[in-house]
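Slides due. Your pick:
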Amino acid sequence: MTDLFSSLIGLRYQLSVYGKKPERFLEQLYLNEDENPACSICCAGFELEAWRCKPFANHLIEWLPEYALPEEELSVDHGNMYVKLQQAAVRVYTSKKYEKRGEAVEIALHAICREFFGTIPISPRVFYKSSSNDVIKSFDMVHARLPAQGGVELWLGESKLYEDADSAISDAISSVKLHLDQGFLEGQKLILGPQIPRNTPRYEELAALFKSQTSLDHLLGSAVFVIGVTADSDALEHAKGHTQEYQEAVRIELSALGKRILASKLTSKIKILLVYVPLGSKAKLVEAFDAKLKGLQ
């Protein structure tokens, strides 16, 4: 690819709606991209020695339109701002039984990949809902990363929200194994491929991954499976700031999750990025997020 062509693709991306993002909120405390699984820790941080729960929920709402609306619906101005937020909020869920809903952490994983890894959405998950409260049996996130050198990368997300991180990683590993089933992947090729916007940079390369003639081996070879674990953290419970002690303790929690992925043998088949988001309280986060979401509906 010539430098000029690369520059044109970069300009095209900057001019698209995905060239603009909410201001950064989460802090990336750790990143190691040199191993498989690659690992990252992102934290909502502290305010007056307390974990920032409500500000975290507010930030998730900032990302709500991009998570829930396809690119062609993201033209927002002062005349339609509330309508767009309302449309996005209704598409996420309207159920009164919010305690076990996982959309908050799907949005968090979406935001992390966009903010820290430079991905772009290519298929909004909520697009497949016939009802706002449907549970979608698909990947929690479908993004692409378009490095200047090398082929396109397909980023497929699996996010889990639990009080217990060990349960979260167990469920995530089980879900990824199910997603590697040939029938499931063939079905996803048929569903996801036609949803990629034609104005997406390097569209032809991305679309080729989903053609029926393309081997699943090629699709998997281009894929990064992003496992997002968002769970209550013992390290965070006893912290009042991003001290060295806290960061060391939360990295021990991350290491335990990484060992579970290695024991699963998944890394011998696919490339994995493990993203750990420690929480002060899962219950308080989903309650705060639900209140913000319902206030828009």
Notes: The CA atoms of residues 10 and 107 lie 25 Å apart. Residues 1-9, 128-132 have pLDDT under 50 and may be disordered. Residues 3-296 form one domain. The radius of gyration is 19 Å.
